[in-house]
Amino acid sequence: MELKPIGRITSPYKTHQDAPRQGKMSKEEMIVEIFPEYTDAMLGMREGDPIFLIYWGDRADRSALRTVPPGHSEEHGVFTTRSPHRPNPLAVNICRVVKIEGNILTVVGLDALDGSPLLDIKNHVPMLDTHLDVQ
Amino acid sequence: MELKPIGRITSPYKTHQDAPRQGKMSKEEMIVEIFPEYTDAMLGMREGDPIFLIYWGDRADRSALRTVPPGHSEEHGVFTTRSPHRPNPLAVNICRVVKIEGNILTVVGLDALDGSPLLDIKNHVPMLDTHLDVQ
User: Fold this and answer.
1) How many CB atoms lie under 10 A from the CB of residue B107?
2) How close B104 comes to chain A (CA, Å)?
3) Residues of A in contact with B130 (CB under 8 A)
4) In which band, very low, low, confident or very high, does the pLDDT at A133 lie, cut at 50, 70 and 90?
5) CA–CA distance from B92 to each of B37, B39, B51, B62 (Å)?
6) What is the reported pTM?
7) CB–CB of A77 and B42 under 8 A?
8) Which of A41, B42, B77, B112 has a CA that sits 20 to 30 A from residue A17's CA?
9) pLDDT for A72-92, tens place per residue?
10) DSSP code for B133
11) What is d(CA B19, CA B17) in angstroms, rounded to the nearest whole number?
């Protein structure tokens, strides 16, 4: 199961210490470059769209199974947290497309570190993706 | 960027035609096995928890860049849809843990095909993961 980078994120956050705990806490506008061979997959994307953006946490500790989350004193399993450190460091952010210029997106709501490989973008559908809808 | 399977999903859906368009449309309870070497990462998971579950769409067409979504007549870029067919077939479902028995979870809200490799579980935090919070 080999991932292909489909783009690259430019971020002011250089280390995990710089980054907010969640993308939702970030007010930074970031540049997301979609590699030219994948721009066809952007057809119909509009400024203002809410999206799921998935990137690869390439500086994560993939051996981490437990962590002490901020504000807690005891260990949690990483699958019950949002820690970036986990066996498959797949980071899912719900963010908003601010601007589209060719293959360059400006996005707000991302917690990515600078240079993170982009893996996927999906449209975010409130009716489907809201906690209250979970059976 | 090589993914490690952390578990495996047992599903009544054998083909894309069998599966609902979205996990939220599924009322099926599915069995999710966490491989023994990763059960430490489940510490603190509770029955009833809403979670993000990420699996690998191992039967997806990874060459697909455009698709005609159900109910539409014109092509969309796959990054503006929830099509399972995309360069990196990372499927994100918001679902609910119904039961936990050792390393076996029973989960509702999944659209996975039978045998799909599990990649990651994160807790779902309504405050952070709701569309209305997107700036």
Assistant:
1) 25
2) 14
3) 130-131
4) very low
5) 23, 20, 10, 16
6) 0.91
7) yes
8) B42
9) 999 999 999 999 999 999 999
10) G
11) 6
